[in-house]
Design goal:
Belongs to the DNA polymerase type-Y family. The chain is of the alpha+beta class and about 850 residues long. It is built from 34 helices and 18 strands. The chain binds a DNA duplex (9 and 13 nucleotides) through α4, α8, α15, β11 and β13.
DNA sequence: GCGGATCAC
DNA sequence: TATGGTGATCCGC
């Protein structure tokens, strides 16, 4: 499917363009924007849904008012202080900019609709949508001319486009096609990250390297024409541009009559050669792709189309955020690249509407809009203001966006954190039926949970009344549950409370849902970790967890902790890390670290422990997170000692040397920092006028930045702000101190110490491969009679809580040691 | 930990 | 007639 954002925005350029094109062409089909909005409004006005939309809108407006009031209180001094603080962060971000990865975002065009059209030629030239009268998942481009989009109810779509054909979804089929596509993607990046059935990110950096040495043969593909050309018949020879174009049209006939694919191996290209003008004359019907990123992506899209008869769009960029936006740019059936060059990135970002960025939705757009921010340039210009009006997480995120920064690595799907079932229905207001429904949902949920071998402690009931108002009620129980009965026992009481509270009125429901979270599966590890560490530290075991990543979060990582002036961070900034790194070692945050990171290594081992027997040696090559030197084949304990020593010792000059080795250009930047560092300073000397313009303010701003961290701004602020804001700010600032990256890492390291243990003695129920083995509790060392892993796991849990830790090997204990800078963690983390 | 909100697909 | 389901995160309590 195309960008979900299109769902909500009827007025996308894309649509306008299409309507325009259409009008120029024939002037008979499609609707203009005004007409579309009118019809939609008419269809929705007066409905309960609409009423709720109005209510929500009011709420957002209130939020905006509050924000504007806050803004009115900000003094210019505060703003200046904020400016220098933010600039400092921006500077660090700029230093850590990493352009060395090539990230690709692949997005199948109108996926579900395209599959349906492919499999049913009758639909080919008609406007169709996949979904139901209540809700559409996607529509083809034909239908989009009429304003028919994903997330629109079918009955409204029908009003927009009376001839619309609504096809019920066939997810099994989409899954099958999706896995065909994924097979191709995996060849370019075995660790590619699927976002959904029709969307994926690839990091093709490595592939590109290897590809440089590939002979042409390895980049050559045969055109499969028979599938597509039964009607057209251009013959076997596609050796000239004209025929190639014809072929292309034939190959991509389904979707986009009005927008020819930009993908055409052009005769001029030295990379792609379909005319046989290269040294080695090509056979007819073959095509050779070049070695550049662009060529790789053309090849990917070519192969997808050959294999599935479906087209994909793609974006190529140095990070995921940009790649995603790129893939939208030439949609459908096109691709766009942002070259790995700072100036290229900034040029791309310059006029980009913030709404295009993944993570900035309708509400954020509106709030920022109220501040006069529509484009990324404006987002950057208002960075100081934003830092005063938004949370640290948010303004950091905004800053990333406005600098064109994003994740340069792909994170594996983390462990699942919740599972839920919900259903919409026509009004149910009888308590009895509501309980029965609740029970059914619990049963379904239990089945799903058991399929994945999960158990959870928190049960959440979700209720939506006929006015579309949503309520959630949660309860956390002391021990994990997974059976229908156990879940229902909790959910029933939550529901009962709501029914009772409404009495004597009935609950008039249109939706009910049940969710289970607080898992014991992957979370088990955490739980165990925390248990162990809790004992060792006699601290709050809950502080071991680290906030999870969102889209926003993922972009934030490099700097997220940089404001926290801990010992570790000083080390860190000395080193000037240049890639996405973080000490979030949350077990569910795999791959958020460079592979050489100890946490990652250990996690990897834990994941693979049942598949790689040769890996069972406790010894491993680790890279110290402080000095960043590789520690060859040592035990975890020894490794930890090394880290301790490193943390205690003075910073070594090696740190900077390593840095300069990996990123010379950043050293330059670092030197500049000594006097003043300007973001507008171009790496190539020919600054474009636009760029100078954008950043002209900043040049001045940044001059005042010194190497001294400026919390002074914060203090000043606190003096001047009203009490509410004061305490808020103070708390934020305190929290940053508490959230000590090293402590987080230490915890996870400690927890990972369980890793090797579990190689022999599984802690995790999902390690099914070893179900048949006798289970020996790693805590009490006693063999357990039951082979049920869940029961076994429960036993381990109990054991841990009994405090049977003396059996833990020294290594694990030492790994779980407290950080040495005396940072304390609080329950507030 | 809870509940509401936001976001993505 | 009629406006989804699932999962995740953030923020303020």
């Amino acid at each position: 499917m195309d960008s979900a954002k299109e769902k909500n925005d009827l007025c996308k350029d894309d649509l306008l363009l299409r309507v325009g094109l259409n009008d120029n062409k024939a002037g008979m089909e499609g609707l203009d924007k005004e007409k579309i909005n009118k019809i939609i409004l008419q269809a929705t006005k007066g409905s309960r849904f609409y009423g709720n939309e109005l209510r929500k809108e009011k709420q957002v407006n209130q939020r905006i008012e509050t924000m504007m009031r806050q803004k009115a209180h900000i003094t210019s001094q505060q703003l200046r202080n904020a400016q220098s603080q933010v600039n400092r962060v921006a500077m660090e971000l700029e230093q850590s900019r990493d352009l060395s990865n090539t990230i690709v975002h692949v997005d199948m065009d109108a996926f579900y609709a395209a599959v349906e059209m492919r499999d049913n030629p009758e639909l080919k030239d008609r406007p169709i949508a996949v979904g139901s009268m209540s809700m559409l998942s996607t529509s083809n481009y034909h239908a989009r001319r009429f304003g028919v989009r994903a997330a629109m109810p079918g009955f409204i779509a029908k009003r927009l486009c009376p001839h619309l054909i609504i096809v019920p979804p066939n997810f099994d089929k989409y899954r099958a096609v999706s896995s065909e596509v994924k097979e191709i993607l995996a060849e370019y990046d075995p660790d590619f990250m699927a976002v959904s059935l029709d969307e994926a990110y690839l990091n093709i950096t490595k592939h590109l390297q290897e590809r440089q040495t590939w002979p042409e043969d390895k980049r050559k593909y045969f055109l499969k024409t028979e599938n597509f050309l039964e009607n057209e018949k251009p013959g076997a020879d596609v050796n000239n541009q004209e025929q190639w174009s014809a072929l292309q049209r034939a190959v991509s006939p389904l979707l986009f009559e009005d927008s020819p694919p930009d993908w055409q191996p052009s005769g001029n290209s030295t990379q792609v050669n379909c005319e046989g003008q290269n040294n080695s004359p090509l056979l007819p019907n073959t095509v050779v792709f070049g070695t550049s990123a662009e060529e790789v992506v053309k090849e990917i899209r070519f192969r997808i189309e050959q294999k599935t008869t479906l087209t994909a769009s793609a974006g190529i960029a140095p990070n995921t955020m940009l790649a995603k936006i790129c893939s939208d740019k030439k949609k459908p059936n096109g691709q766009h690249q942002i070259l790995p060059d700072r100036q290229a990135v900034m040029d791309f970002i310059k006029d980009l509407p913030i709404r295009k960025v993944s993570g900035i939705g309708k509400v954020t757009e509106k709030m920022l809009g109220a501040l006069g921010i529509v484009t990324c340039t404006e987002l950057y210009q208002q960075r100081a203001l934003l830092s005063l009006l938004f949370s640290e997480t948010s303004w950091h995120y905004f800053l990333h966006v406005s600098l064109g920064l994003g994740s340069t690595h792909l994170t594996r799907d983390g462990e699942r954190r919740s599972m839920s079932v919900e259903r919409t229905f026509s009004e149910i207001n009888k308590a009895e039926e509501q309980y029965r429904l609740c029970q059914e949902l619990c049963t379904e949920l239990a089945e799903d949970m058991q399929k994945e071998g999960l158990k959870g402690r928190t049960v959440t009931v979700k209720l939506k009344n006929v006015n579309f108002e949503v309520k959630t009620r949660a309860s956390t129980v002391s021990s994990v549950v997974s059976t229908a009965e156990a879940i229902f026992a909790v959910a029933r009481e939550l529901l009962r409370t709501e029914i009772d509270a409404a009495f004597p009125h009935p609950l008039r429901l249109r939706l009910m849902g049940v969710r289970l979270s607080g898992f014991s599966s992957e979370d088990d590890k955490k739980h165990h970790q925390r248990s162990i560490i809790g004992f060792l530290q006699a601290g709050d075991p809950n502080t071991g967890s680290v906030p999870e990543k969102t889209d926003k979060d993922r972009l934030l990582k490099p700097l997220e902790t940089s404001q926290k002036k801990s010992f570790f961070d000083k080390k860190r900034s000395e080193r000037k890390w240049t890639h996405e790194d973080t000490f979030k070692c949350d077990t569910s945050d795999k791959q958020s670290l460079p592979i050489s990171h100890p946490c990652q290594v250990l996690k990897k081992r834990m994941r693979e422990n049942s598949e790689t027997p040769e890996d069972s040696d406790d010894r491993q090559i680790f890279t110290c997170p402080v000095c960043f030197k590789k520690q060859g084949h040592i035990s975890l304990g020894a490794f930890n000692k090394h880290i301790d020593a490193c943390l205690d010792g003075p910073s070594t000059s090696e740190n900077s040397r390593m840095f300069s080795y990996s990123h010379t250009s950043c050293v330059e930047v670092g030197n500049r920092e000594q006097r003043s560092f300007s973001l507008c300073e171009n790496h190539n000397h020919e600054a474009s006028r636009e760029n100078t313009e954008i950043n002209s303010v900043d040049c001045d701003d940044l001059v005042e930045i010194t190497s001294h961290p400026s919390e002074t701004g914060l203090h000043n602020l606190n003096n001047e702000r009203n009490t509410e804001e004061c305490s808020d700010l103070a708390r934020k600032s305190l929290n940053t101190e508490h959230h000590h990256p090293l402590s987080a890492c230490t915890i996870s390291l400690g927890s990972q110490g369980v890793g090797p243990l579990s190689e022999q003695q599984p802690l995790q129920p999902h390690l099914n491969e070893i179900t048949k083995q006798a289970l020996v509790c790693p805590v009490c060392n006693l063999e357990q009679t039951s082979s049920d892993l869940t029961l076994f796991n429960g036993h381990v849990d109990v054991c841990l809580n009994k405090g049977f830790i003396q059996e833990l090997r020294k290594e694990e204990v030492s790994l779980a040691k407290q950080p040495k800078d005396g940072t304390k963690r609080t329950g507030q983390d």
